[in-house]
Structures are given as C-alpha cells and as structure tokens.
Amino acid sequence: MVLTQNELNSHLYQSANILRGSIDSSEYKQYIFGMLFLKRLSDQFDENVEKIKNELIKDGLEPSKAENIAKTDSSEHYGSFMVPKRAHWSEIRKYSVDIGAAINKAFEALENENPSLEGVLVAIDFNDKDRLSDAVLNKLVLHFSKFSLANSNLANSDLLGRAYEFLIKHFADDAGKKGGEFYTPEEVVRLLVRLVKPQENMKICDPTAGSGGMLIESIKYLEEHNLDKSKVSIYGQEKNLNTWAICKMNMLLHGVFDAHIYKGDTMAEPKFVENGTLMVFDRVLANPMWNQKEWSREWLEKGDPFNRVKYGLPPKSSGDWMWIQHMTATLKSDGILGIVLDNGVLFRGGAEKKCRQGYIDDDLIEAVIALPSNLFYNTGSPGTILVFNKNKKESHRGKILFIDASSEYEEGKAQNFLREKNISKIVDAFDGFADIEKFCSVVSIDDVIENDYNLNVSLYVDTSKPEPEIDVSSVNNELKELIETREKSYEEMQGYLKELGYYE
Fold first, then answer.
1. Segment 167-206, tens digit of pLDDT
2. With the CA atoms of 347, 278, 227 and 253 taken in that order, what torsion angle do they form, in degrees rounded to the nearest 10?
3. Burial level of 401, CB count in 10 A (0-12/13-18/19+)?
4. pLDDT tens digits along 15-27
5. How confident is the model at residue 272, as a pLDDT?
C-alpha cells in the first residue's frame, strides 16, 4: 500500500490520541516525533539493505556475505545513517514489558552509530512508567507498525516532511499559548521568506530556530523558483533542548542532511563563530521571543566579545532591540534581515528609542509592516515585521516603506490567518516600493525624524475612511420637517389631555 499525504497525516494524528490523557498535550510532539523518526530510519535502512543485497547476489555474491556488505553500505543511501540491530523496529516490537527502556536504548544506539544525531534522541525519555505505561507504549508501537515509512511506500519524496509540518501545527494548536514557543504560523513564515528572497549560493540563518520552519520554508522557496537547494547553506541555533531536537529531526525528514543546527543560548553563547568573530550570512530570518525578560543583559553589560552592542543596551524588560543588534551584526555587507517582533519596538522610548534612532540614522531599515491581530499562538498582539537591508537600492536610500496589513486576514476559529492573496498583496507592495492609497507609503527618513523616530505605521499610512459629504440644505429641510411633526404631535396630545379632563 502506497501512503498518500492525507492517509499519513491521519495516521500520525491518531498516534497523538493514544497519548491523550497520559501526558500533557504540549509534550506530545517530542514522543510522536521520536517514534516517527525511529520508524522512518529503520524502515528505510531495511529497504536499502534489501536493495543492495539483491544487487550483490545478482553479481554472484553469496547471500550471507551480500547481506553483511549491504548493512555496511546502506547507510550511504539515507543521509549516512547506520541503524544498528538494537534500533531496528523489529527489535522494538519484541518487547511487551519495559518498552520505554527498549526505545531509549534504541535511541542511544542510533546516536552512538551516527555522530550527527548526538543529543537529538536521548533527550526524549520514554522510560517513565508513571506517565507512559507499557500498555500505552504497546498501543503506540502497534499503531506505528501498521505502515512502512520507507521510500517505496510513500506517494512522493515530500510526504514525510509535509506530515512533520502538519504535526507541528497540530501540536501547536493543541498546546495553545505554549505552541508559540516552538512554532510560528506557516503563513507568517511564508510571508517573511518571500520578503527576503533567499537565492542560490547563500548562507541562511535563524538564530532563534524553534522547530526550523523559517529554514525549511527557505528551502521550499528555492525549489518553487527552480533554484538548486543544494547550493545554499543552512544554519540555526535553538536554546530549548527539546525544540532543538525537533528542529534537527525536521531538517532530516525534509532531506536537508547538511544543515548546521546547534543548541545553546544565541545571546550568551553564539555558536556560529570563526576565529573569534561572528560568522556572517546573506539572509537572517527570525521570530525571537517578544519582550524577552531574560536575555543575558547583565553578562553583556560587562562587555560583549562579539561587538554586537552598536547602538546601546536595551532595558532589562525587553531584549527586542538586542536581538536586532545581534542579527544585523551577523549580516554580510549586502545582507538582509527579516524579523517578527512586538509592535512596541516601533515606538517605546528610553534605551529602545536610542537603538531605533541609530538604525534610522544609518538608513538600515527598508520596511515596517503592521500585521493583523491574533495571528500568533502565544499572544493576541498583532506584531510587526521589520526588514533591515545593509545595501539598499539607490532609489530606496533615505526612505522607509510602511505597510499597513492589519486588515489583510481571514478569521479562524481560534486565530486569524493570512490567505495567499493577503501574502501576495503585501509582497507585491514591498517589491513595488511605492505609495498605495490606504495601504502603504514611502516615507523619507527626515519625516520619521520629525516624528521623533517613531515607526508606528499608523503615523504614515492613513487608513481612515473619509466622512460622507453633508448636504447642509437637505439636512436643514429634514430638521424643519421634524420640528413641524413634533409641533403637530404636541398639539394633538394636548387635545387628548383636555378631553380626558386633565385641564380646561
């Protein structure tokens, strides 16, 4: 049976139902993704072994020798992963008790054989019987055993990657506000990527990678534009260990085997460093935590070895402008940054205003885009997209494009979302870099300075509806008629009162 996208999505969705009631919904993702990844590697490894073994037998080799050689060579056919015996799905199925311990050992064996997986799988602990009983895990193993996840059983090569995206969104929906910690709505990601337009031979980075959506969407953008995705270099860093592991698996299930995804605190310990200085990238995309309270300010006050504090340290209450300073410090001289942040970055005063002033004076801001409200999982705030460009076109210099996209959305049950026509309208306006009535305005930096460096979009894009023109003569005639009607009614009422004897 060849699995279709809908069938695989439904199958994986049902696996979450098996866990329902045993663990919190915000934790489903790490267990389901771990099982999915283990099953995929095992099935594909077995398929590769069988294929290579049969080819060797055809060439005259004895079956037993052919199988031994095939097991060694098969790792080259799936991202250089070797699946040792302990990690085979057939071995997992042998257990009816201590299933969690068997899965943990399978993960450990996979990591031992494949250094690129170090830390990805062992972070997931299945051996917690108070939360995951053998009965629950047995159901989960049997459920995943229904279908092979080898290439020959999948309708197309994108099936697993798309199923992974489906699950990430589903788990974000389930997790509610916690979903915002690892997932940015796909349409916002798509918009951001289409604004910065990654190209071949570029180095692309998301220093707050989450589950890797920005980076995967960048790969998709290349494919959609008939560009060679193998000619880009992908980099990401994520602080949360479980989310980092999900990001790594996301890359691998999408067939992106050479992505550089590191774990750690980007602000305190950036991983992409060469000879003591920050690596620089052609494109940086990110949706960092908004108004972050814990962002290593005390450490940076002592002096930043990477010279990222160009315009000043933001207040402890919000690291937004420090994230911007970090990311622009990692841009090449012609690099572009697209970042999603809270609207407060546009107008808050104090140290944040000082940072904003520096970027405006140095003409590094290309566009400010006001988003609709209630797009994100962890907040109803609308958010904004800022595009920074270190090498603006001559015609864009000394100017900033302001786009009011606050009305460009479709209402959903729990959240609003951007439709394709909304995304296209915003991207077309950004590319056109011209005034569009009630939607966007090209504003000189001098005008922004006159507004005390305030970047609030409503100051520059008038979306108010004009008051209807009043016909004074017509209104006056209507008023006269109302007065006459009132007087007539008053006289009639007095007559009735007189008849009733209330007065003579």
1. 888 777 766 555 556 678 899 999 999 999 999 999 999 9
2. -90
3. buried
4. 988 988 888 777 8
5. 97
212: left (phi over 0), alpha (psi -120 to 50) or beta: left
> Strands 277-278 and 273-274: what pairing?
antiparallel
Q: What share of the chain is helix, strand, coil (3-state, %, to 5)?
A: 50, 15, 40
Q: Do the bridges between strand 273-274 and strand 384-389 make them parallel or antiparallel, or are there none, so unpaired?
A: unpaired
List 338's β-bridge partners, or say none: 285, 387
Beta bridge partners of 277: 274
- Of the candidate ranges 127-141, 247-261, 415-429, 490-504, the one whose mean pLDDT is the lowest: 490-504
Residue 307 has phi, psi (to 5 degrees) of 55, 45
Instruction: Report, in angstroms and rounded to the nearest whole number, the Rg of the chain calculated over CA atoms.
Output: 30
Beta-strand ranges (E) seen in 155-255 are 203-206, 233-238
Question: 182: closest CA among 323, 29, 313?
Answer: 29
Task: Give me the mean pLDDT over the 208-214 stretch.
Answer: 93
- The number of residues making up the chain comes to 504
Question: Within its chain, how far is the Cα of 368 from the centroid?
Answer: 19
Q: Average pLDDT for residues 235-264, to the nearest whole number? A: 92
What is the pLDDT, as a whole number, of residue 73?
A: 59
- Whether 61 shows a pLDDT value over 80: the answer reads no
Quickly tell me which residue has 């209450």 as its tokens.
317
- From residue 394, how far is each of 84, 359, 398, 399 by CA, in Å? 58, 18, 9, 10
Does pLDDT of 283 surpass 80?
A: yes
Measured at the alpha carbon of residue 271, what is the angle toward residues 268 and 273, in degrees to the nearest 5? 110
pTM for the whole structure: 0.85
Q: What are the strands of the beta sheet with 331-341, ordered from one edge?
A: 260-263, 233-238, 203-206, 281-286, 331-341, 384-389, 365-370, 399-404, 440-444
CA 495/CA 415 separation, integer angstroms: 61
